[in-house]
Amino acid sequence: MIQLQTKTVRQGINKAYLKVNVKRADLDAFKEKATAYLNNLAQAEGKDEEHHKAYLRDFLKDTFYSKEERLVNTSRNVDLGIYSGKTTSSTLEVIIEAKKPDNTREMISKDDPNAKALQEALLYYFEEREAGNEDLKQVVITNYTEFFLFDAQEIERNFYSKKALVNTFNQWKTDKKVSSNTKFMYSKFGEFIKDSDANLSAVYVDLSKFKKDLEVPASEKDDKKLIPLYKLFSPEHLVKKPFANDSNSLDKRFYNEFLHILGLQEVKEKGSRLIQRLPQKDRQSGSLIESTIDILKYGQHMSEVREATVQYGDEEDDQLFGVALELVITWMNRVLFLKLMESQLLAYHNHDPKFKFLSYDNIDEYDELNKLFFWVLALRNDERNENIQKKFGHVPYLNSSLFDATKLEHSTIRISNLDDKSLMDLYSRSVLKKGANPPEGPLNTLDYLLRFLDAYNFSAESSGGIQTEDKALINASVLGLIFEKINGYKDGSFFTPGFITEYMARETLRKSVLDKFNEAFGWDCSEFDELKRKMESVELEKANEVVNSITVCDPAVGSGHFLVSCLNELIAIKSELKILCDHEGKRIPYLDIEVENDELAIEHEGELFEYKLNHEWKNGKVIRKPAGSDRQRVQVALFHEKKFLIENCLFGVDINPNSVKICRLRLWIELLKHAYYRSDEDYSELEVLPNIDINIKQGNSLVSRFELDEDLSSIFKKSDHSLEDYKQAVRSYRETRDRSEKQHLQTLIDDIKAEYSESLINNKPINRKLSDARAKYNALVNQPDMFGKKASKKEIAKAKKKVAKLEEQKAEEEAGAFYREAFEWRFEFPEVLDEEGKYRGFDVVLGNPPYGIKFPKDLNNYLKTKFVTNTWRGESYLAFIELGQNLLKTYGKQGFIIPDTLLNLGFTNDLRNYLLNNTHLFELVLLPTNVFENATVDTILIFAEKEILEELDESDEVKVKFYSKDSIIDDLIHAEKEFFVQLKYWKELQSFNLYSDEEELRIILKLDRFQSLEKIGSVYSGIKTYEVGKGTPPQKKETRKNKPFTSDEKHSKEWSPFYDGKHIGRFTNHWNENNWIKYGEWLAAPRDPAIFEGEKILARKIVSDRLIATYIPEKSYCNTLLFIIKLESEEFTYKSLLGILNSKLIGWYYRKKFQINPEDTFPQILIRDINQFPIPEATTEYNNQIESCINQILTAKNENPESDTSKLEAEIDRLVYELYGLSEEEIGIVEGSE
After folding, report:
1. Do residues 225 and 34 touch, judged by C-beta distance below 8 A?
2. What is the pLDDT of residues 382-437, one digit of tens each?
3. Residue 228's pLDDT is what?
4. Which end of the chain is more exposed for a tag (fewer CB within 10 A), N or C?
């Protein structure tokens, strides 16, 4: 029998949600309503079921769901349900099956789930699913005090995914079983539960056990244990509403007001959401962008900006906006980092207000903010002046280059240049308008900014406690999403939901870790669980060395989201392998770390981990001690683990300098979360941050002057600086706390790279040839030969000409403007060079590379020569995939999000062949359309391993995960379909077919062995009637407007029938002599008139689960929504061919082969697809039988288009199966996927 595995309330709640604080007022209200509910139940003994339902309904409504505007009510036979909206016409999301407390016989228990309550709940679940409801979140079974909460994915996995059970249900529902009584179906569910050996998971709670705790007056200590219970019934758990630190969703209220203060707006343009400067009429001179632009423009600060045209555009306004935005992003990076740090200090010190420093009371001028940047954060405490010490003495020094003045600040302005008196109107829906005394009229911009930020909770790490202030949480993930959007202002970049980055990090890193341990210890583990069982035999230090050796790169790093996900996953891997150590190399017991919602959920000794200090004030100075030595130990361990991994394992490149800044900020914030006070400084100093900026670099990942396999060995030997000198300089740069030393090391590193680069350039063939030619020319000019004879003018002229030609050739090679941003992978990251300086490569390359980018012509030509797959349209993601493979070491793992155009379109054929012949594809995931908000491109995840060619095997398998286009998902663990396919099938098909498993692919390949339709006929597109500038004479706008060549009346014999897509059905013609065309050269795109003469088949471009086509016997024309099929062989008649084309088999074939989803808004088929349709050899017998059926169908449909011809169509389907020689098993596969 199915085993019911129950979880406690705490175990059942998403750990990331556990970390979210609960507002005191909300918890008090919950306690009051829960107490009233239990009291009502106690007085309800002897009352009927409806009384009990009413009490539960009111409890749910009064606690959460009325204010959520969600209906809680009965639904058909369902006892209670929670809906997505206010009425029963909205979607049912939670099924509640309730039994009276005394009905123990029908209620499930922990030991026996096979009771009527579960059987009934399953019936209701199946009814909802078969009605098309894909949004169910929970199934709850209760006796009003005991609650069993089943995640809908558990019900889906254990019951609804079982085809035989679903078939039984459908047969019962359509009266095809011996009884249509519900008892019959309950018994079938009961038999299934009895015979299954699966594990069914549920959260269990007995609400009555909390009665005393609910009745206790407000107390943080006592109430904290009620928080998980509160969260269990909340919409964030029951209906999976996004919560405050959910990295998959954007806080739009914060985002919109933040844009307002900046002086920006988000607009939708050609399907993308772009960030732009506000239009002239809406601009406020006090906004940060406008203030900055004015000072840049009227203070004449743009003259020192180098290459403004290259970086920001030709127009002055574009240059001003680009420079201003980069400056404002730099300043806001610092301010938001400081806001997070302030929240962290307050949390460490029990919210002592003395640690609050980022307010208008403290900082009432931009000059003060500038001092905070450079006189406080950029200087150690002992370097600060006396006045600064008094004002900001408790603000720690962090050693972050975030507080180094940027090159752009040096050449233009600093935030202190902004006007302290500038004013701004409040945003129309400002958060500051909440509360008793909202500000009236315009606010000082700096005051507005600081008040706005203070209206939110910026805790870097929440503790899941009780929050007295009504402030929404803004954490590092949410800030990352916001900056990702602002940063992609030109091209409308989309932020990647956290559950995707988390999944991609997990899929690549766990495989990489597995490979590393197998290689290090000679193991052959194929699964991560198998690896865990072996870890007890490995020394902690060696195990950590293995994981620490992994290198990860994102070549289009953006906001750094992928690197943060990788950082979290590496920490979680160490925890799961039980190798996570403290700073002294000792294992930390009772420490469990998991990744939940793309955040680390850290538990120590069964409680959420929280770093706190005990502190007191003496003579104006703070005295600190950690609140427990274990807390200090864990915090120190987490900081140093993250520090090492960020410094040595995570690398990124981006062409956008703002992206580079934001990525560095994200990584610093991850370290800030676990910053600790140093015990060796009497807990007076916070541990400083390393200089991680050296791992995140600016440049064009796709452009390099030097190949990865260029030999540097001689250069390292001849250079003034060895490879070890270079590596040591990088290590020293990361570790130094001295700013002047850091600047010296940066100069040294730049000099070393310039030296290597110059040597490589001199070694290039063109430079060697030019050097030789110049030497020969100089010799001819300056030196006579051994007999004292001088060179002739002709010889000198010839040598000079050769030098000039080689100089011209060199200039052409280096002329590309794109070289200015070239990124030299060959030596920029010494961590992936071996001891001899050979490029070794990264273990993991992952990301969401840009796509749809239009390259300049010269760059596109360069990329075509560099990347073998970038042969046609110059689509950017093609080059990034090939680059990713080049950057990997052998057996390295690649994971990218890319458009689904890779699957089967012609222009991606070279890339498919490249991947099949040079890599081991190990997983592809077809994502739903709505994964990226407002995106117009459907996407897939692709995972590939770099292989040695000789080791590639046709039996290698790829895992396929499939989600339908309209699915709404919040994880990638539970796919709608998941299967493995041998790659040989994709090679033969020349496409990556994610719609078909191996059984289906074998049928497709069997059908493909028949002749194609193009062998017996031709397919043509219909007529495009109107387009300005086309036709003879060329059409004008008036022609397109007045449409003189088409009409709903036949004006003369020159007018012919003209079919539109809506006129054609399956075996039906709905044209009613109401659409005509005057055919001739005056049309925009006329076709050969012979195409339209006589018999033909017209097929709609828009398809459903089958082709929509019919037979047309006479001369007629059609528009571009229809295809014309003309036979060129007498082997078939039009009617027998129509029977084949409209058959269930051909419908199944084109959906599977060409990956056409009938659920798409406008699923289309192409001419090239129809040309590939397999056509069997005709026989007179089958032709006659099919044609006979067709004649009967056409006659019936002609008399009444609604005629039921299903039996005749089924007979055609049977004949077609026989024509193609399908077995009963193969027919079952085709029929079963309908």
Report:
1. no
2. 889 989 988 888 899 888 888 889 999 999 999 999 999 999 999 999 999 887 67
3. 92
4. C
Distance of CA 290 to the CA centre of its chain: 33
pLDDT at residue 1234, as a whole number = 57
Helix axes 1206-1219, 1134-1141, angle to 10 degrees: 90
Q: Is the dihedral of CA 886, 888, 891, 893 positive or negative?
A: negative
CB 1122 within 8 A of CB 1107: no
1159 CB neighbour count, 10 Å cutoff: 10
- Residue 1081 CB: number of other CB atoms within 10 A? 8
Count of C-beta atoms within a 10 Å radius of residue 1086: 17
Apex CA 845: angle with CA 842 and CA 851, to 5°?
145
Tens of pLDDT, residue by residue over 998-1014, are 999 999 999 999 999 99
Contacts of 647 (CB under 8 A, 6+ apart): 690, 692, 695, 734
Identify any residues that bridge with 563 across adjacent strands, giving them in sequence order: none
Instruction: Report how far residue 159's alpha carbon sits from residue 530's, in angstroms, rounded to the nearest whole number.
Output: 29
> pLDDT above 90 covers what percent of the chain?
56
Closest CA to 412 of 489, 314, 331, 315: 331
User: Which of the four pLDDT bands, split at 50, 70 and 90, describes residue 817?
Assistant: low
What is the C-alpha separation between 52 and 38, in angstroms, rounded?
Answer: 11
Q: How high is the pLDDT of residue 220?
A: 61
Distance CA 776, CA 642 (A): 58
Backbone angles phi, psi at 1059, to 5 degrees: -95, 140
At 536, the pLDDT band (50, 70, 90 cuts) reads confident
In terms of DSSP bridges, do strands 1117-1118 and 1055-1059 run parallel, antiparallel, or are they unpaired?
Answer: parallel
1012-1232: which CATH number, 1.10.600.10, 3.30.830.10, 3.90.220.10, 3.40.720.10?
A: 3.90.220.10
Spatial distance between the Cα atoms of 647 and 665, rounded to a whole number of angstroms: 14
d(CA 1000, CA 1009): 15
Burial 797-813 (b: 16+ CB within 10 A, else e): eebeebbeebeeebeee
- Answer for the pair 894, 945: CB distance below 8 angstroms, yes or no: yes
Measured CA to CA, the distance from residue 497 to residue 492 in angstroms comes to: 16
Half-sphere exposure of residue 407, counting CA atoms within 13 Å on the CB side?
Answer: 8
Residue-wise pLDDT for 1055-1083, tens only, equals 999 999 999 999 999 999 999 999 999 99
Cα 1046-1049-1052 angle, rounded to 5 deg: 85
Paired tokens of 688: 């400083």
Burial of 795 from C-beta contacts in 10 A (0-12 / 13-18 / 19+) = middle
The reported pTM is 0.84
Place of tokens 């458009």: 899
Q: Where are the beta strands (DSSP E) in 947-1016?
A: 957-962, 977-982, 1011-1012
Q: Would you state the pLDDT for residue 32?
A: 93
